[in-house]
Specification:
With 205 residues, the protein is α/β, with parallel strands linked by helices. It is 50% helix and 13% strand. The protein has 9 helices and 5 strands.
Amino acid sequence: MKMMAKVIYFDGLSGAGKTTQINWLLQFLESENKTYRLVREKEFQPFAKQLMQWKNSSENSLRAFDSVRQLARARGEMHAKHLIPLLARCDFVIFDRCVYTSAIYHSYYDHQLQDILKVNYENGIIRPTIGILFLCSVDTALNRIRLRNRPIVSLPLSFTEITSFLNFSHRQYSELLKYDSSICRIDTEFSKHQIFNTIKPLLDL
């Protein structure tokens, strides 16, 4: 199979501006007559079912590394069935969150980031051409999140616990840069236009 698509992983701290930049990128690609597929992994089976089981698991189960393996196995099967065929059909395959998010949530239960990435890649998930990691200060993220009518994280936490989790996530996302050379960190404290103009050359646009 001819692999022609650039695979872009978009991820980062909740409230850092990822969704805005994805939307701008899609509009730009359309204006340039580029073909793309936007991927949200939780919309595909068997990953969606396994993710729901993970969310409903006990804390003891989540602290066992088998919970990481099960989700990685389901992600690998989903990539093989639904996503790898797209690589010969599109100019860009764009992930709205990916294995990086899983790494942050799994590491919350004391699993090591490098082990989480390794088991996912061993299960055959698509490696990105580039990972775009959006980060801002936690205060900025919280201020932006307050303007949205959506849950902040997929964990049953109080606001104080959510703030603590965002601080944890910020540290872990920064740590991810050590283990995956394809990741590029984007500071989103700047204007939306400045951020987008930083992203475009990274994607050769």
